[in-house]
Amino acid sequence: MSRFMKQHDFTISFCDKCAFETSSVFRFLTRDETDRLNFEKDFRRYKRGDILYHEGNRISGFYCINSGIIKVFKTGIDGKEQIIRFARKGEIIAYRSVLSNEPACTSAEVIEDCQVCFIPSELLIQFVKTNPSFAFEVVKLTCHELAEANSYITDIAQKTVRERVAEVLLSLVKDFGLDEQKYLRISLTREELANIVGTATESVIRLLSEFKSDRLIELNGRKIKIIDQKGLEKISS
Amino acid sequence: MSRFMKQHDFTISFCDKCAFETSSVFRFLTRDETDRLNFEKDFRRYKRGDILYHEGNRISGFYCINSGIIKVFKTGIDGKEQIIRFARKGEIIAYRSVLSNEPACTSAEVIEDCQVCFIPSELLIQFVKTNPSFAFEVVKLTCHELAEANSYITDIAQKTVRERVAEVLLSLVKDFGLDEQKYLRISLTREELANIVGTATESVIRLLSEFKSDRLIELNGRKIKIIDQKGLEKISS
DNA sequence: CGGTACGTTGAGTCATATCAACCATAGTGG
DNA sequence: CCACTATGGTTGATATGACTCAACGTACCG
Hints:
The structure is a homodimer. The first copy, chain A, is 44% helix and 23% strand.
């Protein structure tokens, strides 16, 4: 663990700056609260593959992501993971378990090297209990995630794997965008894609190469180029 | 709509009484706030099949359930419904849309005749913004629902229909309990069961009669008798 | 009495999972 | 430097779970 050095990188780790630059809920904190946050938070760096926390464990705080990408997942039957969501700059993870004071119901693993702030539980609980407009933002945030989860449930329950693969590609475009050459700004293994869709790795591979034949996408290893977004939308219906 | 008469039934519609009797979040309101709730709420009765609100519509308030059962569902491709959850005595529905100020992301329909209180949006928002401990409860509530939604996603994505049917029966036992003769205290159509599981009606029918042959359950129309709970747990794994 | 909604069963089909083999790549250690 | 191993990706063959379609039974209702 010694590799995750605490440090004070003044260009990036000040929460007020971070809060204004991102859509973080922390922009609703007062000056004083932001100062406390700055004082008590722990800035950390993680590399791809690192685990931030494990499902089932009690956690003593939550994480605010400054850069990089983290996947949040549950472990299902015989260890197969189900990816619940990805978190990126400005987003917070593990706050749910902190607020409901339960063991983590998910695990979190780094997809792209990242810098995060670890913030002790008590701070979040205190802010929620004493700053009504911050509490309201947190409520809105959970409500939003809940709405997303409900759509996710409906999709998985009703759509075919083919439709869901197309849809996942589109939602990755929406969340992470494309670079100048139309490549998705997130690279996942085929297995990870399968674990979002809720299918077998081989099925994802087959469908991706089908989409490639149909000139909807191009593949370069893990990089996926989106050629025909409309076509994908049509498939995801 | 004239059938949903506003009325003042003093034995059941006073929120303070209701709040204490149930596990409602309203027990965290102050005396004054409870009085306002009593004054502004609208007591209503609905019958099986009635719709409380439709997905996509803006709503001007939310509902607290005094008695009866309501199903909350999303409408997926070609109209197939996906049941998200059931709400019963003491629970609130539609609060999510109110808090995030978005159109309803679900519809709500009465499964068992019910009595509910309709509470204007502004009241909820005001309470959340001014009563920190109430806000904290609402946060915990949404966090809890979020955790449930995440498990639901993992189950649907990874388990077989057979496992899910067994699991749904068990979760109905957990939520609604059994009567003296071990019958489930909620009756659903086969189609509704299918719409929880996320499968075809015929599949549910086949699996139920399979469970019946295996002496796990007994069937009397819509009433389901749970004989071997352990057996069901084993199947749902 | 016909109509409507729900329940049941059978047969056929298809999408998807599973199993197996193989290739490519990169990292490891002797 | 090479064999070794692990990991990820790909493809094919096969099996099967679950859906669809269709027919029919049942019950209730106006």
